[in-house]
């Protein structure tokens, strides 16, 4: 039987506030910091303490809701979500249930194409995976605020096993974004997650650093007969912390469910974990329903009332969002759609591009874009850096592209100079002058270099004259080697073709 996958995502994003959701504890890097150094009686769940809502967390939540075109609730209510786990100090989580911060939004997502599955460094290479295709709309069911749990570290040594609890993360503000089940392939789920991460980073509410777990995905996956409109029994895959894990786990679960259904078995509603090493899902527990959590309004927090004037101010202050920005870059600078989307994914990169264009009046904006999405992105990926961390200003990159465009240096030299700029931070002109790297375009000098290359390689020249014309490219490389890569390639090719043709004419007349 043919089946249609149905996928919905719950995305948990840590909000980049300085303090926690309901106390004054500092939000710190839970990966690098010593355990249990950012904990107070409130986030440790001590009896008798009272939570106080973080206004900045509410503001960040509203920014996301507005960017997702949600309907913001005038009044939302926090609730206690009761369950017991070692990393949940209070025995309940303060979240929002019946009355969330916002509902009924949309996210426009580029429709994915088939492509090879990403490698281990998938999150670092996703810039080059951004396809430029027709978009689809994924509906957003709700956006709500809650607090994060602590972190467990499971230890096994010799003959004992135990778990360590770190409460540094307990109480960190979380924004949960729940989609409708509008996705129908693992590739669509990945594209949605990538687009949402880009949006969160643009808004400045989340760093997007997935290696530190600041964004986590939970995928609800089910199958139904092709053509049916009824939803099948779903399973939830918990705590996916990479795009690769999200895509692979959904693909595996679709295959597993299809096999069970073909064998006449039923799908059990349950919560699953993902075993990245073995590429399989593992059952963790039966899937809870809302009543299992015994939700009830948080008695220590009043209803959250959001005034319309505040919402209007936040809406007016939203930055240019990635998709409109990509369209503007494409129209304003004549960029290819793919380059525009790559640049617009990160506001800092888009700003860098526009400043570099201003500093490169002799180069088309498309050329500047190719330098950034090619050479610069390659260096950033290889060195695990962001655009804000590099030593080359956009003005200096623009000057380098200008020098290449004006013919003062050739493309190969320009790439070498950029590598030195990224390493040393020196300006392009200083590196070119110090290394005497100006492009050689003098026709007499280049004619001499061509003559030398032909004279020093008589065997190859004989083969060329006997019909092996591909050796012309080999001779070109020899001339460029003699010129230390600084000769003007166009002048070299013209002079090389001229001298080779003269020698060939002479050879033919003598034979």
Highlighted features:
single chain, 511 residues, alpha+beta, Arc Repressor Mutant, subunit A, 3 domains, three-stranded antiparallel sheet, elongated
Layout of helices and strands:
Layout: E1 3-14, H1 55-67, E2 71-72, E3 75-76, E4 78-82, E5 92-96, E6 102-110, E7 135-147, E8 151-157, E9 160-166, E10 173-179, H2 186-203, E11 215-225, E12 235-240, H3 243-262, E13 270-275, E14 280-286, E15 296-297, E16 304-305, H4 308-316, H5 322-333, H6 337-344, H7 347-358, H8 365-383, H9 394-406, H10 411-424, H11 428-434, H12 443-455, H13 458-465, H14 471-482, H15 489-510
Parallel strand pairs: 12-13
Antiparallel strand pairs: 1-10, 1-11, 2-6, 3-16, 4-5, 4-15, 6-7, 7-10, 8-9, 11-12, 13-14
Helix pairs in contact: 2-3, 5-6, 6-8, 7-9, 9-10, 12-14, 12-15, 14-15
Task: Kindly describe this structure.
This protein has about 500 residues and is α+β, with helices and mostly antiparallel strands. About 5% of the residues have low confidence. Helix 5 packs across helix 6 and helix 6 packs across helix 8. The chain is built from 15 helices and 16 strands. The protein starts with a strand and ends with a helix. It has a 9-stranded mixed beta sheet with strand order 2-6-7-10-1-11-12-13-14. Strands 5-4-15 form a 3-stranded antiparallel beta sheet, with no helix packed on it. Strands 3-16 form a two-stranded antiparallel sheet. It folds into 3 domains: about 240 residues, no CATH class; about 120 residues, no CATH class; about 70 residues, Orthogonal Bundle (Arc Repressor Mutant, subunit A), CATH 1.10.10.410. Helix content is about 40%, strand content about 20%. It is elongated and about 100 Å long. Helix 3 links the parallel strand 12 and strand 13.
